[in-house]
Amino acid sequence: MALHSAATPAIEPGTGAFPTLLLVQGNDTRTLILDHSPFTVGRKMDKDLVISDPRASRDHAVILSENGEFSVVDQASKHGTYVNGERVQRVKLKPNDRIEFGARDSVYAVFQPVQAGTSTAREFLSQISDLHITTQTTDLEKLTLFLEAARKLNTTGVLDEILLTLIESTLRLTGAERGYVFLVDGPGKLRLAAGRNSSGAALLDDKTISHSILDDAINSNSEFVVSDTSQSSDMAVRNSVIAYDLRTVICIPLRRTQVQAARAADTAAQPVVLGVLYLDARYTSRNLSGVGHDVMHAIAREAAALVENARLAEAEEANRRYEQQMAIAATIQQGLMAVTIPEVSFAALRARNISCKEIGGDFFDAVRTGDELSVVIADVCGKGITAALLASTLQGMVYSHLVARMPLPEIASAVNRFFCQKHIGEKYATAVIVRLNSNGELEYVNCGHVPPLLISNGQVMRPEVSNVPVGLLADAGYQGGACKLARGDRLLLVTDGVTEAENAQGEFFEDTRLQEIAAHSSFDQIFAAVNTFCAGTPLADDCTVVELQFTG
To answer: Which residues of 253-272 are buried (b: 16+ CB within 10 A; e: fewer)?
Structure first.
């Protein structure tokens, strides 16, 4: 995904705040700031929000700001723009609206308008209580005011603060003595996340509540309300109800809202339960018994939205910290793996690496030893920080062995033994190591890598000797090969990120296309051909190209 700036402001300058889109893709979340209008969405690389999925149209949709209101407008896309599960042409956006652009099963965005205030939730509640609630205010109006207070703070406050706000608002509404929020923490597990009594004291222990009613609320997947346990024969036999003299109990499952569960609705799946709001009292409360189903539905719906949005905000913050750590790791890796291309009189070397993530598992290196120039290109399986760590280790080992002028097959065997003996899981690497001397004599060892291309007089040949990748078989043997280069001959080394580069139709660049282009193209033209073929589709794997030319 990509975000670019533009000139037209989305809100009045000087306000210091902008609405946002919370972008959710798998387990990753990211906040995109709507700081200009129109905000463009599509598969083309010049869009503010770039969606690489082929189901997204090149010019898919725009988000417009008009008189302080925001609308999403479909641009005649093939697979449609959806808001809360419904296909739309143009619609005004409301807080927490879920927007999907063609690729409905892989990525969506949640619209979040400018958030007001930085005061704590309890201060906000107190202000609303003082200003708006009177004896004539209905229960539903009170609930709306209290939950609106929490909702306005759900992206600036932490989850704990939101949960306490939820408990305090429902305690005031119902007149219950105690309130708890339990969150689902794995299959069949509930975790006490927050608790308060009507005096505002923290409740850290859930031993004196009715856990059987709590379980029933989860299993029934519906509001579970008991006004007076003494009037229910079922309640009268529950040990906890009797032991703790509980006369009034309310359990409300917090289900993921329609906005957050549009995908589940499309597949007719059951709504996901995020947790339970539990209230009880040792007396029969008129306020509790008077709470109607409309209010209970409102509590269940809005409370679930609060919890879900707070979790998304926490996930966004965790993702931001992760991205900072990845940026640091990328800087360190770039320093460790920086390549200074040696100058030799008999050869010219050019190379380029593009990582599909901040840090990657591809690398190349070059070492001069006397009248010889050695080059290595490698690809560690996987992506991200694990692959990067292994790539750094592999590079260091190969470099030290090349400096010691070890035979190339022995270098491959030593690296293979190290990887296999360290038990690092199902991790392996493909690599090609070559050594060229001033007479044009080239020796090489190929460890399961994309075969090199030898271009001579417009003809392309493939050195045939190959071996298994390093790290797969502890007792693997490695054989090298050799050939003689004439002046002007070029050896092209690539990783599979080049041959497996995809376009928007899901087609691969492929080895045959690389071979045809390499025969008559320069180093820069090869990269240009890959970019033209992909036509803006992001790389799915690291991409490295190395060209070694014998100049005589």
So the answer is: bbbbbbbbbbebeeeeeebe
